[in-house]
Amino acid sequence: MKVSFILLLSLLQYNLFPVTVAASDAYPSAYTGAAGSCDVTAAGDAVPVRREEYDGGRILDITHRYTVDMPSWGSTDGLGEFLWLPSSMKNGSLANNSVFKMPTHTGTHVDSPGHVFQHYFEAGFDVDTLDLEVLNGAALLVDVPRDKNITAEVMKSLNIPRGVRRVLFRTLNTDRKLMWKKEFDTSYVGFMKDGAQWLVDNTDVKLVGIDYLSVAAYDDLIPSHLVFLENREIILVEALKLDNMHPYQMISLDYVRDDS
Hints:
Layout: E1 3-12, E2 39-40, E3 46-47, E4 53-54, E5 59-61, E6 83-87, E7 97-100, E8 109-111, H1 118-123, H2 132-135, E9 137-143, H3 152-158, E10 166-170, H4 172-175, H5 193-202, E11 207-210, H6 221-229, E12 235-238, E13 248-254
Parallel strand pairs: 9-10, 10-11, 11-12
Antiparallel strand pairs: 1-5, 1-8, 1-13, 2-3, 4-5, 6-7, 8-12, 9-13
Helix pairs in contact: 3-5, 5-6
């Protein structure tokens, strides 16, 4: 399986401004009291704040936070424990050092061509070969009709304009909050093969994002992936958090490693 984790941030299309952060702002001050700063307890201890919105809502994190109860592909019990602390200062170590281990098809991630093509796998077409220019830029958010998978008929009805390169598909998966349920659900909404083929043949889309663990419907799992990834021109971004989203620009930061 050739997938990896990404950090995906979305910037609202309107009122975009460059954001400059000084080195001292890497951790918000515990003493400013500004929105987004660390909270301070009565005892004066700093409390970290994990934000999903930055710069007054202009930057939104649309990845899912890793938890033991988040869904993992094929699992009925969720992800389970994935983070250990073998070296702990409480136990006498000089520093805290963690071990991070999980299936790669978990949380918000991308698929590489080697995910479903053995010859691409052997040739090294991993996530670190994906085009960062495709992974970053203006994206169209579309709402898919809620009663069906993404077929050719559905794709036609969405009227995606020519020239659009990145489309994020919000489906019934978001309404059902499937990414908040730990048991993997095979009834999720995804692309059928004919829908994937219609997108390839009739649009200029190079990035396809969706709101569950696979862009392809469970009943058309491999055929849809083959259509999308055969020519190495389309990047798949899966398990996005698209509730309460608006049209935006996206920035994807890939977690790169050897043989990823």
